[in-house]
Amino acid sequence: MIKVTCPYCGQRAKYVDSKVVYGRSYGMIYLCSDCDAYVGVHKGTDKPLGRLADKELRYWKMAAHDAFDPLWKTKKMKRNQAYKWLAGRMGLSTRETHIGMFDVSQCKKVIKICENSKGEFNNGKARTKNK
Ligand SMILES: [Zn+2]
After folding, report:
1. Is the pTM of this model over 0.70?
2. Which of 25, 52, 89, 122 sits CB 3.0–4.6 Å from 19 for a disulfide?
3. Cα 70 to middle of ligand 1, angstroms
């Protein structure tokens, strides 16, 4: 297993089965029980998906996905195009642009960016909205 440290307290995270937090097993996770922070791993590996997330960050990551995922799930653009676009807006490289790696303020930024650009993606489909 890989040495993963908790970004909140700096202790080494434990590599445990996810049933500790979910009640049933979804594979392994890295967990800091002191901070109630954890992260899953890439399937079939012991590589963490991102940084350990505490309750607040888990909430914001979910919210960021809710705002961002529809961009590519609705086929307005391909997934990698959507990430490239987001990277540009965030001022990051595409390699750095993974919601799993973001902190709370970056997740909030994603939500704002997506909300502010809704219009861009509805071009062509020009929805008529009465105010
Ligand atoms: Zn910790």
Report:
1. yes
2. 25
3. 32
